[in-house]
Structure formats: structure tokens, C-alpha cells
From TrEMBL:
Protein EC: 3.2.1.86
A cellular component annotation (GO) from this entry: cytosol
GO biological process, one term: carbohydrate catabolic process
GO MF annotations, alphabetized: 6-phospho-beta-glucosidase activity
UniProt keywords, alphabetically: Glycosidase, Hydrolase
Active site: residue positions: 362
Identification of the protein by name: 6-phospho-beta-glucosidase BglB
């Protein structure tokens, strides 16, 4: 590839506190919604009992091993690390009068370590978790009270870390409440559409209030949204399929439309009417929503198809989605269809729509890695996946799309959000821990570690055209 990525392009990886940190109750941390989902986002919600244990309670012990892990990221050449702050480390119950100083101090150390290695943090305020007390006492984001609790939390961390963090995101994959209401909003999984969309509205208002606070408190920072990039193609050129696809894509585009434009799109008027939903939107809400994001960030793992035919049986699932399978694409061993060109398409699609800078903050390949007799992990399948996606990202930049950076998902093996497995590995760095909680937690560089190192060092020039 003769093309070099822009000098300002940020290279790195993406993580989430509840999937790497462990120490789920250490130093005053409260329980989060993630802590009661020991089997993953779709698994059973299990109240905590004294002495019980689940895989996320230790995760990969980043809480204690962060200096070693950040040094490995620096060795690869990272200029950016996406990470999240665990809201329940700062406000253990969510509605506490004062923040937890031990939690604030922990992230002071994280940001100092990143600064030491010249790595810029990209911080998500809420990544698939919220204080459990807010879900139990206030019915999660269904309560308007939670807007105030979130804004208070945001202002505390902006005040504390504004000198160190200049890139922020509000909610991870904010559209996930459509698919997993407890993980997304702390709602019961059987909640009705009225409750679901009112909670989503409260989140959108809270996000806008955090954006305003960031603009006021850290004027040299940028703050964006984060959506699950669930792009769908028409299964056929039948106009019914094309129209159905437009409707399906609008389900997740609505979130970006509100956050980037500052108001609800007109197509949602019909959507709410058909659902029998009446959102309580105050004049203060409308005013708050006018504070718009600086950039659009998104995850991209796979595309899918949409069909107006309800009898279309060939389904594919991945990242909490259920779509019609694309017969032209291969899939991972977890059934996630692989579509590098879809990333270029999505980048162009979103840039045409919003004319805002874009940031690919999640993209990666989950697989069952094997340590060979020589102690090595030869993950050529991951290299192929990432190479082909980054190649298409480069094509999008040449198309004229403004892309701020790329943080691949799980630069170090971590606990899967959807299944709470360690066997589903994404990292350039292998962690010796298994689903049975056995292992030394030792870190091992995979073949992809050195590959990504070379890609960053060459500013993308060593990417190769996809194989035929």
C-alpha cells in the first residue's frame, strides 16, 4: 500500500473497565450492573451473594497490572488508548453525596502512566455498566433523576482529569438499549417500548448535558458519541427490501442524528406513533439536546442484510444483533460475518450524513487462540482480518472521509461482553487465564503484536491489498 495515513491519525486499542480491571469491590467501588451479569450481556441476571465469584471479578487484573500492560501498548507504538471509567468506582451507589476519593486516585495513576508513555487517553464515561443501585432504586435510565446523577459524575471526572484527558465519549454503543435494555440502561429485559424509549431519551439528554459540561470545563477537549455501527444492506434489490433496510438502519442512526444535529429526526414521529409511544420531552430537554458532539465514533465488527420477507430464515448474529446473513461473506467461528469493505462503506455513509470527523473506536476479531509447542501464538487469521479492515479504512480516507483514528477492540485479551468468556480472544497480547479461572495471568505477545507494531511504525504503509 503506497498510501500513508495522516500524521495526526491516532493508533491504538480499546478496552472497558468491567472487562479488564477486576477488583470489582476494591477501594470503595460499588456493584455495577455488569457485576450481576456473570454469563454476559444476554445471560441471567444473578444477585450477588457473599463469597460468590465470577470471571469478571478478576478479569485480567488490569487494576494491578496496568503498568505492565500500558508498557506493552507503548511497545507496539500506541498513540491512543480507549478506556472507560467505572462509574461505580467514582460514585459507588450513583446517588452518593460525594465521590469516592480512592476511585478517583486510581484513574489519576492510570492517566499518569499513559502520559509517561506518550499515549493519549480516549475515555468513555459509561461503557456497558452503571451503579447497580441506580438500576434497583430508580429503575435505571427510566428515571429522569439519573440524568442529574450522570451529569454530576461527568462534571467530577472532567474537573479531576481535564488536564490529562482531551478526548471523551459519553455512552458506549448508546443504541444497545434497543437490543439489551439491562446492559444499556439498567432496565428489566421485558420492559415495554414506552419505558425503553423514555430511558433512551433520558440518556440522550444526559449525553448532551455532559457534552455541554465538557465544552465549558475543558475547552481544549473534544467529546463525541459512540454508536454500534450496525449497517445493513438490502438482501435483494426488491424495493420492499430496500425500504425495509432504510427503516432498519434508521433504528440506530436515530441516536447519531440526535447527538450530531441536536433534535429528533422527523422519521421518529411516525415511529413513535406506530409503537404507541409518547416521549415526555420538556422544553429544557429540547434546549439541552442542542449541545452537539464534536465527532462521531462507532464500533464496526460486521454488516448484515435486511429483508422485508418475514420468512427469510438465513440469520446471522453478532455483537447483540440479529440480521439476515449475507451469502457473499465468510464468518468467524462465532458466526460474525466478515466484511472489510463494509467499513469503508460505513465511513463514507456516516461522513456524508454528518460531515463530522469520525473515529473507529472498536473493530476486531474474536478467536480461540492456541499457544503452540514453542510458546507462540500464530494468529494469522487476526492479522488478515485487521489488515483488510485497515486497508479499507485507508481507502475511505482517500475518499475524503476525515478519520481521527483507529482503536481496535481488545488489544489485550479480555472478558467478552456478550458471553463473559476469556476463550473468545481479541488481543495482540495473550493473557494466560481461561474460562475455568485457571492460569497465571502472564502476558504473551502474539504474532499480531509485531504485525500491528509494524503497521503503526510505517503509518499504515505496510498494509497489503486484501487477498482475492
Amino acid at each position: 500500500m503506497s498510501f500513508k495515513f495522516p500524521d495526526s491519525f491516532l493508533w491504538g486499542g480499546a478496552t472497558a473497565a468491567n472487562q479488564i480491571e477486576g477488583s470489582h469491590l476494591r477501594d470503595g467501588k460499588g456493584l455495577s450492573t455488569s457485576d450481576v451479569c456473570p454469563y454476559g450481556a444476554f445471560g441471567e441476571i444473578v444477585p450477588r451473594q457473599a463469597g460468590d465469584f465470577n470471571i469478571k471479578d478478576l478479569a485480567i487484573d488490569f487494576y494491578h497490572r496496568y503498568p505492565e500492560d500500558i508498557a506493552l501498548f507503548a511497545e507496539m507504538g500506541f498513540t491512543c488508548l480507549r478506556l472507560s471509567i467505572a462509574w461505580s468506582r467514582i460514585f459507588p451507589n450513583g446517588d452518593d453525596a460525594e465521590p469516592n476519593e480512592a476511585g478517583l486516585t486510581y484513574y489519576d495513576k492510570i492517566f499518569a502512566e499513559l502520559d509517561k508513555h506518550g499515549i493519549q487517553p480516549l475515555v468513555t464515561l459509561s461503557h456497558y455498566e452503571m451503579p447497580l443501585n441506580l438500576a434497583e432504586k430508580y429503575h435505571g435510565w427510566a428515571s429522569r433523576d439519573v440524568i442529574g446523577f450522570f451529569e454530576k459524575y461527568a462534571r467530577v471526572v472532567f474537573e479531576r482529569y481535564g488536564h490529562a484527558v482531551k478526548l471523551w465519549l459519553t455512552f458506549n454503543e448508546i443504541n444497545v438499549t434497543l437490543h439489551e435494555p439491562f446492559t444499556g440502561s439498567g432496565l428489566p429485559r421485558d420492559c415495554d417500548e414506552q419505558t425503553r424509549y423514555q430511558a433512551i431519551h433520558h440518556q440522550l439528554v444526559a449525553s448532551a448535558k455532559a457534552v455541554k459540561a465538557c465544552h465549558e470545563m475543558i475547552p481544549d477537549a473534544k467529546i463525541g458519541n459512540m454508536i454500534l455501527g450496525a449497517i445493513q444492506y438490502p438482501f435483494t434489490c426488491n424495493p420492499d427490501d430496500v425500504m425495509h433496510t432504510l427503516t432498519q438502519n434508521r433504528e440506530w442512526l436515530m441516536f447519531g442524528d440526535v447527538q450530531a444535529r441536536g433534535y429528533y429526526p422527523s422519521y421518529m414521529t411516525r415511529k413513535f406513533k406506530e409503537l404507541g409511544v409518547e416521549i415526555n420531552i420538556t422544553e429544557d430537554d429540547r434546549e439541552a439536546l442542542k449541545e452537539t458532539i464534536d465527532f462521531v465514533s462507532f464500533s464496526y465488527y460486521m454488516s448484515g442484510c435486511a429483508s422485508a420477507d418475514p420468512n427469510e430464515q438465513a440469520k446471522t448474529e453478532g455483537n447483540m444483533l440479529n440480521m439476515v446473513a449475507n451469502p457473499y461473506l465468510k464468518a468467524s467461528e462465532w458466526g460474525w460475518q466478515i466484511d472489510p469493505v463494509g467499513l469503508r462503506y460505513l465511513l463514507n455513509f456516516l461522513y456524508d450524513r454528518y460531515q463530522l470527523p469520525l473515529f473507529v473506536v472498536e473493530n476486531g476479531f474474536g478467536a480461540k487462540d492456541v499457544v503452540n509447542e514453542s510458546g507462540e501464538i500464530v494468529d494469522d487469521y487476526r492479522i488478515d482480518y485487521l489488515n483488510d479492515h485497515l486497508f479499507q479504512l485507508g481507502e475511505a480516507i482517500q475518499d475524503g472521509v476525515e478519520v481521527m483514528g483507529y482503536t481496535s477492540w481488545g488489544p489485550i485479551d479480555l472478558v467478552s461482553a456478550s458471553t463473559a468468556q476469556l476463550a473468545k480472544r481479541y488481543g495482540y497480547i495473550y493473557v494466560d487465564r481461561n474460562d475455568d479461572n485457571q492460569g497465571t495471568l502472564d502476558r504473551i505477545r502474539k504474532k499480531s503484536f509485531y504485525w500491528y507494531q509494524s503497521i503503526i511504525e510505517s503509518q499504515g504503509e505496510k498494509l497489503t491489498p486484501p487477498k482475492a
